[in-house]
Structure formats: structure tokens, C-alpha cells
Amino acid sequence: MEQRDIFPRSLQYLIAIAEHGSYTRAAEALYVSQPTLSQQIKQLEESLKSPLLDRSGRTVRLTDAGEIYLQHARRAWGELDAGTRAINDVMNLSRGSLRLGWTPITDHLTCCLVENFNSRYPGITLSTLEMPADDIEVAVAEDRIDIGIAFSKPVSSEGRAGGIDTRMLFEETLCLAVGNAHPRAGQKERVSSKELEKESLVLLNSDFALRRIVDQYCHENNISPRVAIETDSVSVIIELIQSGPLATILPKSIIRTQCGLYSMVLAPVLPNKAITLISRKGGYKSPACQTFIGLATEWSKSRLEETPLRKRKPCPLAEGYHEDKLLNEGLLITK
């Protein structure tokens, strides 16, 4: 559909008469009969209760009212043209917006996905909001966010909030994590649940799914963990672990990408947990939203094939380098 199909004909005719100074030439340019053009202008003047054209001379001229009205008509034409171009921009992803909700865990695990989306579609404004997993489904259902990434398995259709679609991107292994200052740094043996009970832990607070997983694990194994610090930030947890003797429980892939952290498997093992993509089921999805879902699906497949879209370079400490070698290479600084 061309712009002239949606712009009022009477305004198109008025603009043409002003440009050509003649009913006859305007009618020829528009491929309409002169009586048709005259009738449309007459109806427009009657609706506005004001003459727009001065027909007394050889040429047709705009009245003062016509001059003012023509300025607004041309402005409206320009706005419609801008609107058409804006729609085209949205459809080809050169502009638009996307609202993403995620948890403190999933922002670390899927940050490279967001970076990849931004690098491919820099014209899309991506707004992220950190929230507990339980709030993400509600926010999606209420259209406060377009996409959610939660640290939990997809919910069954019976237990799912109305209008919500979920899909698992990948599963994560949960491990005990310690830093260089911890006595267990570099330990290869598994850590029993009773040994875990003696550790001083820094954990996310109970608003978050990972903390509830840890609490459930401790309950099932009849242990009472020493929770020294609670926080709502994974970055704070990592910094505390790196610089002190505290321990925590994190996904193994996060531990591997943080310098100075070591991972150990618990016995019995913690259950694997999934990173889940949450979106509205049915209804309108913007081109940016649909594209992000497609890219996330592609990215999750690449993780399974161990060829990620963007693989972070592991820290040497996380790979078990010998401390003397790190000192010689200048990769470890001691006080």
C-alpha cells in the first residue's frame, strides 16, 4: 500500500492545486477528472467552514486560511512518510526495542548471548531488568517484559501461568566453589554433604531459585549450612570468594570463567538445573522479540555442540595451573 492510499484525497488534491496553481494541471498530475477534484476541495472547505482557495484570478491561489492549513497538511504527509519508514526500520531490525528480564545467575550465563544480539542488531535498544525467577513469568504475562531467562526447568502446561511459553536452552551443573585463599583450593576429591555443613557460605538470598535449590539439598541431606553472608548479587559472591576463605555454590560454567575460582563436586551431587527462555504464548511478538528467540535457540544448540557463538577465554587458575608457573608468568600477584 502506497502512502497516497492512506492520506486523505482532499488533502492530496489541495497540495497538488497549490503546487500547480491550476485545477486543470493538478487534475492531470493526479490522473483524476477536474469535476472530481473540484468536488473534493468543495467538501473540504465546507467541513472547515472556510475558503481555502482564491479562484477569482487566472491562477488559483491559496487564501490565508489555505496557507495555514496547507502547512499542517504537508506536515501530516511528512509524519505519515516518517511512520512508514519507521515501520520498515522495525521490520528489518534497524530500530526497535526489547525488554529482557533475567536472574543474577542467568545474566552471567547468557551475557554473551545478549552481547551477540547487540552486535548483530545495534539499532535495537535492549533493556535488561534483574529479578527473581518467580517474578519473570508474571512480568512476561503482564507484558512488562518481552523475554525472560530463568534458572529453572520449563514448567508443564498444567502448572504454567496463562499465556506463557517456555523452552529449555541448556542445563547447568552445580558445584561448590572456593577461591585461592580457601584450604580446598585445587582439591580434586568430592566434598561430602557433611563437609559442606562445616563451610562458611556466601549465598544468594531466598528470593532466588539457586538458594532454594541449595536449601532443598541441605534439607534432603539433613545438614544445617553455615550461611555467613546473603546477597542478591552474583558479582558480590564471586568477589568475596576470590578474596577470602568463604565458599559458595554456583553453576560450573560460571566458576570456570572467573579467575581464581575452583570447582568441586559434592557427594551426593546437586541436581542439574536448566536455563529456560520464557515468552508470551500467542499474541503479538515484535520482530526484535522473535529474532532474539531464534538467536537464543541457535546459541543453545551451539553450546551443546561445544562451538559457542562467543566463547570466553578461561582463566588459567580455573584450569588448574601450578601456582609457581603463574607467578613466573606474571599471572598471579601475591602480597
Short summary of the structure?
The chain is α/β, with parallel strands linked by helices and 335 residues long. The protein has helices spanning 3-6, 9-20, 23-30, 34-48, 64-91, 104-109, 111-120, 133-141, 193-197, 209-220, 234-243, 252-256, 287-304, 323-328; strands at 53-54, 61-62, 96-102, 124-130, 147-151, 164-172, 174-179, 191-192, 200-204, 226-231, 247-251, 261-264, 266-267, 273-280. It has three domains: 3-91, Winged helix-like DNA-binding domain superfamily/Winged helix DNA-binding domain (Arc Repressor Mutant, subunit A); 97-171 and 274-304, D-Maltodextrin-Binding Protein, domain 2; 174-271 and 315-328, D-Maltodextrin-Binding Protein, domain 2 (3-Layer(aba) Sandwich).
Write the layout of secondary structure elements.
Elements: H1 3-6, H2 9-20, H3 23-30, H4 34-48, E1 53-54, E2 61-62, H5 64-91, E3 96-102, H6 104-109, H7 111-120, E4 124-130, H8 133-141, E5 147-151, E6 164-172, E7 174-179, E8 191-192, H9 193-197, E9 200-204, H10 209-220, E10 226-231, H11 234-243, E11 247-251, H12 252-256, E12 261-264, E13 266-267, E14 273-280, H13 287-304, H14 323-328
Parallel strand pairs: 3-4, 3-5, 8-13, 9-10
Antiparallel strand pairs: 1-2, 5-14, 6-14, 7-11, 7-12
Helix pairs in contact: 2-3, 2-4
